Amino acid sequence: MSDETAHQPQSDPREEKFIVDRELLTEDQLNGLAEEYCTRYHGLNDTENPLAELSGVRAAINRGDLVVWFDPVENSAGLGSPN
Question: How far apart are CA 56 and CA 53, in angstroms?
Fold first, then answer.
């Protein structure tokens, strides 16, 4: 370890985003996250009905293609890629 890396501040693991097991969330919570994902994703694209893809987003959650990330610093959750 060099002197430069020895004096780098280490990140606090309590401040790192983590994946929340979808089984811990209610259907209402998952629906809310899916709706937010649809409206945020399409909000800049002037899509007339962004919620039309809601069933596809829910299917992606069920397949594990989208997961729930929680950010303890922002105290917020959102959908994203599992990687």
Answer: 5
Range 29-47 average pLDDT: 82
Q: What's the rounded Cα separation, in Å, for the pair 52 and 23?
A: 24
Distance of CA 58 to the CA centre of its chain: 13
Q: Which residue carries 């606090």 as its tokens? A: 12
pTM over 0.85: no
71: alpha, beta or left, given left = phi > 0 and alpha = psi -120 to 50?
Answer: beta
Separation CA 1–CA 60 (nearest Å) = 42
- Is the distance from CB of 33 to CB of 79 less than 8 angstroms? yes
Residue from 81, 82, 79 nearest 36 by CA = 79
